[in-house]
Amino acid sequence: MDHSGHHHATPEPTPPSGHEHVHHATESAGQDRLPVATWPMAAQATLHCLTGCAIGEVLGMVIGTAAGLSNLATVVLSVALAFVFGYALTMRGVLRAGVDLRTALKVALAADTVSIAIMEILDNTVMLVVPGAMDAGLANWLFWVALAGSLLVAFVLTTPVNKWLISRGKGHAVTHQYHHGH
């Protein structure tokens, strides 16, 4: 086969794996380096946080609704479980990096507290303001649509907060040093 007419292009760079690393920018060698936060990085951090929040939130809403708990008790249960699952997912990754349990907990608290708190305020507010959503019951489509919508609102409105936190070396940026295997 004659390949003389074929032109070999420079290979395209490999796209990111989804676990973007924090890049640092400095104006001078003596200044502290602040992470450069990108929107994809912020979305990834928010999605990570939302995963734990959603597990806890859905579980809390399902348990509270199935048990006939009051709206307040259901929200409290959902918030507590969202924090537990959110922290647990972060700790799982940090523990895989070989750190002790106490350090992993400190990292999870620093990485996720603000993000989870904002998400919980947003998604529970949506559930409470959608007429009938909290009282709809597990078999009613309104419950599930409102819950899915509440998590979407939480994701969209928390992503800019996470971008801001990462750009200041806070939030998800504190987990960066533990992502060696990603």
From TrEMBL:
Which InterPro entries has this protein been placed in?
Answer: DUF4396
Enumerate the spans annotated as DUF4396 domain: 38-171
Q: Which UniProt keywords apply?
A: Membrane, Transmembrane, Transmembrane helix
Ranges for the region named Disordered are 1-29
Q: Which parts of the chain span the membrane according to its record?
A: 69-91, 103-121, 141-161
What Pfam families would the database entry show? DUF4396
Q: What is this protein called?
A: DUF4396 domain-containing protein
